[in-house]
Design goal:
single chain, 239 residues, alpha/beta, Glutaconate Coenzyme A-transferase, three-stranded antiparallel β-sheet, 7 helices, 20% helix, globular
């Protein structure tokens, strides 16, 4: 018997899940692979005092930048935030708490949380402000600092293809942080571009098994913005 996890829209998929003060992981890298439709539904819900775990906070008018505009985020746990003026303004004004992480450390903290590993040691950040207040130990003549694994109440992710059972396939670089976040939250809600019948996905291509995904929403016409558009000059411009 197949159990469908499909919901009619993003609002329905998040119904009964959202609450003030919760921790949310949001997949994506820049604007690539972000769960834009689910983010918009969170904005419309009005929940506040959120802690968001994401590589970055999108841009001012897309991605998590939408939740910064409405001041629904209290704290960001991130790596790179240089494309968001609203983020910088709120941080400098003391209105937003930030926990910066080296990018690889952030990815491993999420992966570790999903794997049931409460903490690990890394050389990244030793001797810098990142190491302040953290346990430091020596292994094989090298100094390491301890980082804690990360877990969330909710993970919102984006996938290319999915089936009603929640099995997911990602497309190229849009894969980024989405698969590891799917393992590190109590509730996982995914938006998928293409919805296929059970059994249609090649088992060898499934990255996130349906056991991790609780709810799905089909977004066949999701808008994909380009964060930084760079084009090659025409030959006549090079003369």
């Amino acid at each position: 018997m197949t159990v469908s996890k499909i919901y009619p829209d993003a609002q329905a998929a998040l119904a009964g899940v959202l609450r003030d003060g919760m921790t949310i992981m949001a997949g994506g890298f820049g604007l690539c692979g972000i769960p834009q439709v689910l983010i918009e539904a969170i904005r419309e819900s009005g929940v506040r005092d959120l802690t968001c775990i994401s590589n970055n906070a999108g841009v001012d008018d897309a991605g998590l930048g939408l939740l910064l505009q409405t001041r629904q985020i209290r704290k960001m746990i991130s790596s790179y935030v240089g494309e968001n003026a609203t983020f910088a303004k709120q941080y400098l004004a003391g209105e937003l708490e930030i926990e910066f992480n080296p990018q690889g450390t952030l990815a491993e903290r999420i992966r570790a949380g999903g794997a049931g590993i409460p903490a690990f040691y890394t050389r990244t950040g030793v001797g810098t402000a990142i190491a302040e207040g953290k346990d430091e130990r020596e292994f094989d003549g090298q100094r390491y600092i301890m980082e804690r694994g990360l877990l969330a109440d909710l993970a919102i992710i984006h996938a290319w293809r999915g089936d009603p059972e929640g099995n997911l396939v990602y497309r190229m670089t849009a894969r980024n942080f989405n698969p590891i976040m799917a393992t590190a939250a109590k509730m996982v809600v995914a938006q998928v571009e293409e919805l296929v019948q059970p059994g249609a996905l090649d088992g060898d291509h499934i990255v996130t098994p349906g056991i991790f995904v609780k709810r799905l929403v089909h977004v066949p016409n999701v808008v994909k913005r380009i964060e930084q558009r760079t084009t090659r000059k025409h030959a006549e411009e090079l003369v």
